[in-house]
Design brief:
This protein is of the alpha/beta class and 277 residues long. Helices cover 21% and strands 24% of the residues.
Length: 277
């Protein structure tokens, strides 16, 4: 019997160089180190890690130079997609050892990895110089073709921007472009188990094209859950988190929301007399 396959998803690292705090408040480097230590120590340990964008804060080479050795501490393969805070050229220059990434920074960094029980597709939703996301018509054609080649293989699509309206006003002001067209593509390919997204620094889920689109918490700071249309752009230091996706043939994919950090417990439900009163 094959063992379950575990995919950890982390997102929105927003790493800075020179031990600088992000937004003058957040120790994103310390948070990333704690996240990596947590994943490495997990039992059972994830088989792979996918990182759904905003790897660094300003897309600078010195930020990626700090990020690369930290991610190299992961005791499992990891895969990257860019977010709106990333710069393709600098990302590719630093992670030239990631052979699944395309070589041209002028085009979207779309990729496919075939070597795991689930097929991985990375979809670059960034618009250089902008906050919002999109998928170009040429990417739609590429994605439709790639998915059509192996319709029998369960597939994860990893991307930064969620292709749906979240209700958090300041994050929705730059809406996802071509979301309806992307949904039509996904609907034609029922082997797509999840669209794994970041950007929102919170866990969310929505039905999308017959599949599920979900977002991942941030490894450090979180977007405040404020559903007012005029909500200001603000964050807080709720517990940092990740998603853990468990695939088992015949059972499908189950997605768990986990948190990083140490908390009281675990405590037993039962003692020698039964359920503890």
């Amino acid at each position: 019997m094959s063992l379950p396959f575990l995919i950890a998803q982390i997102s929105d690292l927003h790493l800075k160089a020179g031990n600088k705090l992000t937004y003058g408040v957040v120790d994103t480097l310390g948070a990333l180190r704690r996240a990596i230590d947590h994943l490495n120590a997990s039992q059972p340990r994830p088989d792979i890690v996918v990182i759904s964008g905003d790897l660094v804060d300003f897309g600078r080479p010195d930020e990626y130079a700090v990020l690369h050795p930290e991610l190299a501490r992961l005791n499992m393969p990891y895969y990257l997609v860019p977010g709106n805070h990333d710069v393709r050229e600098h990302l590719l220059a630093e992670f030239a050892d990631h052979v699944y990434l395309p070589l041209c920074p002028e085009a979207p960094l779309d990729w496919v990895v075939e070597e795991h029980p689930l097929r991985l597709i990375g979809l670059d939703t960034t618009i250089p110089g902008a906050h919002g996301g999109r998928v170009l018509d040429s990417q739609m054609v590429w994605l439709d073709d790639v998915l059509g080649r192996r319709p029998e293989v369960p597939t994860l699509v990893v991307m930064h921007h969620p292709p749906f309206v979240t209700g958090i006003g300041h994050m929705d002001r730059e809406a996802f472009i071509n979301g309806a067209a992307l949904e039509q593509v996904i609907r034609r390919h029922p082997q797509v188990e999840r669209l794994l997204c970041g950007h929102l620094h919170r866990p969310m889920q929505q039905r999308f094209g017959g599949s599920i689109s979900c977002t991942c918490p941030g490894t450090s700071h979180q977007i405040v859950l404020d559903l007012r249309p005029d909500a200001p752009a603000h964050f807080n230091l709720e517990p940092p988190g990740y998603l853990l996706h468990r695939w088992e043939p015949g059972q499908g994919l189950v997605s768990h929301n986990g948190v990083f950090g140490d908390y009281p417990g675990p405590y037993p439900f039962y003692d020698a007399q039964g359920l503890i009163d």
